[in-house]
Amino acid sequence: PGVFAYKHYSGGPFGLSGVHDIICCLRGKFVSIEVKNPKIEPKYSRKQAEFAKKIEKAKGISICVNSLEQVAEKLNLNVRLFPLFNKSKHLTGLTNADEEAVQGSA
């Protein structure tokens, strides 16, 4: 609830270079997320940094991350991360009972 997001694909002749990977609206706030390889320190490319500056100038939020934990931390989200589907991690807003039901069906 309170979140709309989509994955941006910048390839092809109509894509805009530097646009971040995930564009979303989180509780009424524009958020742009650049996702990097979890094995390296997250850092914007030059064009991604320019895009981030435009977002921040417009009072939006722009973050560069390499894990779901960083997303939760940088966006100050009060969510729990738990293993699901072969121990990958997902952001959820589930209650304990919901979590147990999902894990029991996996």
Question: Would you kindly provide a written description of the structure presented here, covering whatever features stand out?
Answer:
It is a single chain. The chain has 106 residues and is α+β, with helices and mostly antiparallel strands. The protein is built from three helices and six strands, in the order E-E-E-H-E-H-E-E-H. The strands form two sheets. A four-stranded mixed β-sheet has the order 1-2-3-4, sandwiched between helices. Strands 5-6 form a two-stranded antiparallel ribbon. A hairpin with a 2-residue loop joins strand 2 and strand 3. It is globular and about 40 Å long. The relative contact order is 0.13.
Topology:
Blueprint lengths: L2 E5 L14 E5 L2 E7 L10 H12 L3 E5 L2 H7 L5 E5 L3 E5 L3 H10 L1
Parallel strand pairs: 3-4
Antiparallel strand pairs: 1-2, 2-3, 5-6
- The side-by-side strand order for the widest beta sheet comes to 1-2-3-4
Beta-strand proportion: 25-35%
**Residue runs with pLDDT of under 50 for 5 or more positions:** 84-95, 101-106
Please work out how many helical segments DSSP would assign. Answer: 3
**Helix content range:** 25-40%
Taken from the alpha-carbon principal axes, the silhouette is: globular
Task: Count all strands and give the number.
Answer: 6
Distance between the termini: 23 Å
- Overall structural class, as computed from helix and strand content, comes to alpha+beta
Q: Radius of gyration, Cα only, in angstroms? A: 16 Å
Largest sheet: 4 strands, mixed
How confident overall, as mean pLDDT?
A: 80
**Helix-strand topology string:** EEEHEHEEH
